[in-house]
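Hypothesis: this fold can be encoded by more than one sequence.
Test: take the structure tokens below, design a sequence, compare later.
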């Protein structure tokens, strides 16, 4: 069983983490990333405007012209994968961390990073050939810990689309992401997102949307510092970040400031979304007439929720700052709690994996055969 990584904390560099604004911008990332020896065991952006209105329309609104049948595995393959997928009862252990999780952690869980190539491009050779990137958020009980196996499908998965293709790394990088699916099941994620599809258009006929490619898997937490909300993550797979992860703007440990947009106001200039989230009155009342408010986990439970992602060059330091009340009550520091979850996830995925891709797909209840492998280099 892996040991805790609390002793591996690195000094973070102070960055320019600006507050939320209505303006959405982007910048090129060419950051190199290397892990410490202790961590080896665990694991262009462009400034162009969104290419077409079609690229900003959630893929769930497109109807496939014909259903795609998943390739049938051999008997031995099927038994091995099914054994992995059926280990759903042991992984999440609710209540195992009662009274130790800090109040600043609003939600924690498993995060998967995927990207999809542009129409007709099954294997992108660089970020310019990516249509958009995605995050899959799979919340766990706040007081839960992880054992071995996959996680029970409770239908609470969220699919977050990032039309800018890469993830922001500094306060100068700020752009919109949106909830493409919420309260989703593994079956829906498999059929409507992971798989490739062909669909008809009036102008060019049949178009091919490639299958999604996994880029990383890890753990996440949505935290609050009182004035801001943050989405913090630690990557478990791959054990060493490569060219793909770096070009996508991912770090071994990273975070974003996240702010939810009030759908009662017009969308930011240059952002083409058909409509905002259909919030009930109690959620709309939270805005108090403001255009943006710190994101809360329940905001992400509504399809078409639009929120601002702002990079944090200081890493996770600001996002995991301990609160005085939690310290008085003897609760874990937010970073320590997240590292504990990462240790548990690292062991869980190590037990599951044949290779990184097979582990990720098995964890999502999907046979890896027929889907792209996790990539660390563009070829």
């Amino acid at each position: 069983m892996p040991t805790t990584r609390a002793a591996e904390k690195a000094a973070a560099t102070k960055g320019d983490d600006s507050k939320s604004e209505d303006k959405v911008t982007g910048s090129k990332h060419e950051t190199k990333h290397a892990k410490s020896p202790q961590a080896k065991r665990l694991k262009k952006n462009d400034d162009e405007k969104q290419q077409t209105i079609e690229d900003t329309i959630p893929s769930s609104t497109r109807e496939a012209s014909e259903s795609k049948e998943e390739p049938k595995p051999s008997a031995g393959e099927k038994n091995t994968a099914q054994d992995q997928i059926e280990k759903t009862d042991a992984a999440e252990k609710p209540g195992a961390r009662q009274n130790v999780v800090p109040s600043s952690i609003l939600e924690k869980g498993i995060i998967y990073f995927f990207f999809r190539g542009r129409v007709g491009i099954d294997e992108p050779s660089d970020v310019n050939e990516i249509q958009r990137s995605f995050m899959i958020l799979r919340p766990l009980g706040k007081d839960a810990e992880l054992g071995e196996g996959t996680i029970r499908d409770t239908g609470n998965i969220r699919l977050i689309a990032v039309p800018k293709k890469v993830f922001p790394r500094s306060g100068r990088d700020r752009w919109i992401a949106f909830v493409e699916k919420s309260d989703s099941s593994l079956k829906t994620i498999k059929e409507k997102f992971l798989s490739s599809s062909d669909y008809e258009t009036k102008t060019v006929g049949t178009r091919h949307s490639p299958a999604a490619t996994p880029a990383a898997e890890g753990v996440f937490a949505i935290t609050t510092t009182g004035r801001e909300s943050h989405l913090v993550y630690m990557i478990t797979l791959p054990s060493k970040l490569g060219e793909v992860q770096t070009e996508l703007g991912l770090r071994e440990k990273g975070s974003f400031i996240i702010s939810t947009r009030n759908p009662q106001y017009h969308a930011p200039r240059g952002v083409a979304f058909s409509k905002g989230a259909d919030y009930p009155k109690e959620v709309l009342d939270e805005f108090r007439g403001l255009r943006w408010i710190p994101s809360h986990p329940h905001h992400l439970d509504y399809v078409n929720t639009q929120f601002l992602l702002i990079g944090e060059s200081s890493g996770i330091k600001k996002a995991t700052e301990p609160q005085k009340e939690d310290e008085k009550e003897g609760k874990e520091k937010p970073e320590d709690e997240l590292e504990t979850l990462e240790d548990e996830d690292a062991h869980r995925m190590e037990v599951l994996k044949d290779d990184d891709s097979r582990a990720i797909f098995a964890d999502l209840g999907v046979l890896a055969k027929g889907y792209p492998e996790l990539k660390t280099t563009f070829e």
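The CA atoms of residues 89 and 95 lie 15 Å apart. The radius of gyration is 20 Å.
Hypothesis status: open.
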